[in-house]
Amino acid sequence: MRTHYCGELRSSNNEETVTLCGWVHRRRDHGGVIFLDLRDREGLVQVVFDPDDEVNFNTADRVRSEYVVKVTGRVRARPDGTVNKDLPTGEIEVLGKQIEVLNAAETPPFPLDSHSGVGEDVRLKYRYMDLRRPEMQSKLILRSRISTALRRYLDDQGFLEIETPILTRATPEGARDYLVPSRTHDGKFFALPQSPQLFKQLLMVAGFDRYYQIAKCFRDEDLRADRQPEFTQIDMEASFVDEKDVMGVAEGMVRHIFKSSLGVEFGDIPHMPFSEAMERYGSDKPDLRIPLEIVTVSDLMAEVEFKVFSGPATDPKGRVAALRVPNGGELTRKQIDDYTKYVGIFGAKGLAYIKVNDKSDLEEGLQSPIVKFLPVPVRQALLERLGAENGDLIFFGADKARIVNDALGALRVKLGEDLNLYTAEWAPLWVVDFPMFEQDDDGRLHALHHPFTAPSCSPEELRAAPETALSRAYDLVLNGTELGGGSIRIHDQSMQAAVFDLLDISPEEQREKFGFLLDALQYGAPPHGGLAFGFDRLIMLMTGAESIRDVIAFPKTQSAACVLTQAPGEVSNEQLRELNIRVRKSVTE
């Protein structure tokens, strides 16, 4: 039906006769001449209809926004003074010779060239209209190209694309499963996979050596800007590898897609231990574009009379830390109060601060309600440790280490955003040397990643000191977002037994949840490891989208619903009877 896409015409097409198909993006009548901006997925081109051709002119005069039309005409240079440098096709226009209306359109529910005042629910209800907008199409087109690029890269690296089941069984992976009742197995349920973790390990046992897939995963959890109940994961696993091998392949893939898709080349990507990331940035996914750092000052505060500081400073599980904001003395009291409320979200009971007006005057040059509780030597040591200068503002956190890290880590990011402190466009980082376990308030151990992550010690050393054991795990972070993570897996039965024992997973529970994997490990499992990237999050970062929903064609809302299809929905009693399920109505008191 067409000879060219609208957006691909250039001055090199001058004097060519072309046939275009697309949507009328905009119609203008300028003194008896009709201008149509015709749009397809490749962009816009201006089509002009003169009144000399009465039939086609009248047809062009009748079309409205979002009509679907077919146009044949001659490409010509735009007259002097009318070139649009903001448009790739802005040097030319098409003189329309024939126009055919392929389909009329109702008035759109919102203007496609100005949607800023449109609620997200309306955009999602009419998603097929929202997706016509050039900025939305460009995001999904880039997503497709990145998908193609990473497949080519992994193919070149010897990886095989192998699909794993969608209908499987529930496994403990930290979130609720989506369950699917079985009609043929009364009272039993499938679970939709939270990840292909166990199956990709089985593929290594099976000898496929290098596996990948772009996998759909499902988690029934509370949503946020970078989460969806169903999401896409770049999943890979390889045999006879160590951390360096896996990280090398993954890093090469990220470098390849950034260079080929955005023209961005990364320098050396630093490696940072988990403990250092938490100490300096309060997060295991620090945004290194922000130059602010958290500094521990517990030793300086251990003997002060201010119990808010001395208590956590002398608590083995506590921490007192400071965050220096250069030129932060310009912040108003209202801004400081707002930041105090903000850190309260993360459990902080307050946000102490000191304004450094004159660092040479330790008596009168420091402005804060807490200065009077700090001896002069402590003030001096504090300013020296932080490298404070006149005009700076110092925020403090004092509580359990976890609360201090969460609160000051989030405050650091918030200040970076509010004060535009970014020093680079991209800041990738590998976080390594994660703890093997985390401990709850009852002293029980939990796997920081999952129970198949290999520790960096022997089974005997693991049993002797599990609280200090490190894992062979690694995460790739970009601009404060965890792109993905993975680990070397346990392939030795004695090590797996030690981990299960420390996690207090009984033999019966092991068999119930992981029996098929444990059986496979008995038949010559190779050393193996892998990694998974959140594909949606990666595209969100690369396109500069504010939400993960903007890079998924048909996403769910914050309440995990689809307003387009009205899913989830009720089903018939007949379907429920086939599944031997009765719906119990909830009672609202």
Automatic annotation (TrEMBL):
Q: Which residues bind ATP?
A: 219-221, 228, 482, 534-537
Asked if the Swiss-Prot or TrEMBL record annotates the protein with the keyword Cell inner membrane, the reply is no
Q: What processes does the entry annotate via GO biological process terms?
A: aspartyl-tRNA aminoacylation
Q: What class of enzyme is it?
A: ligase
- Kindly list the residues the record flags as site (Important for tRNA non-discrimination): 30, 81
Q: What EC identifiers does the entry list?
A: 6.1.1.23
GO MF entries: aspartate-tRNA ligase activity; aspartate-tRNA(Asn) ligase activity; ATP binding; nucleic acid binding
**Residue positions binding L-aspartate:** 173, 219, 449, 489
Q: List the GO cellular component terms.
A: cytoplasm
So what does this thing catalyse? tRNA(Asx) + L-aspartate + ATP = L-aspartyl-tRNA(Asx) + AMP + diphosphate
What is one Pfam family matched by this protein?
tRNA_anti-codon
Which intervals of the chain are annotated as region Aspartate? Answer: 197-200
Q: Which CDD domains match?
A: AspRS_core (cd00777), EcAspRS_like_N (cd04317)
Q: Where in the cell is it found?
A: Cytoplasm
Q: Where is the Aminoacyl-transfer RNA synthetases class-II family profile domain?
A: 142-555
The organism's place on the tree of life at top rank: Bacteria
Identify the keywords attached in UniProt to this record, alphabetized: Aminoacyl-tRNA synthetase, ATP-binding, Cytoplasm, Ligase, Nucleotide-binding, Protein biosynthesis
List the InterPro entries: Aa-tRNA-synt_II, aa-tRNA-synth_II, aa-tRNA-synth_II/BPL/LPL, Asp-tRNA-ligase_1, Asp-tRNA-ligase_1_N, Asp/Asn-tRNA-synth_IIb, AspRS_core, GAD-like_sf
Q: What does this protein do?
A: Aspartyl-tRNA synthetase with relaxed tRNA specificity since it is able to aspartylate not only its cognate tRNA(Asp) but also tRNA(Asn). Reaction proceeds in two steps: L-aspartate is first activated by ATP to form Asp-AMP and then transferred to the acceptor end of tRNA(Asp/Asn).
* Stated family: Belongs to the class-II aminoacyl-tRNA synthetase family. Type 1 subfamily.
Assembly notes? Homodimer.
- Descriptive protein name: Aspartate--tRNA(Asp/Asn) ligase
Organism of origin is: Salinispirillum sp. LH 10-3-1
This protein's encoding gene = aspS
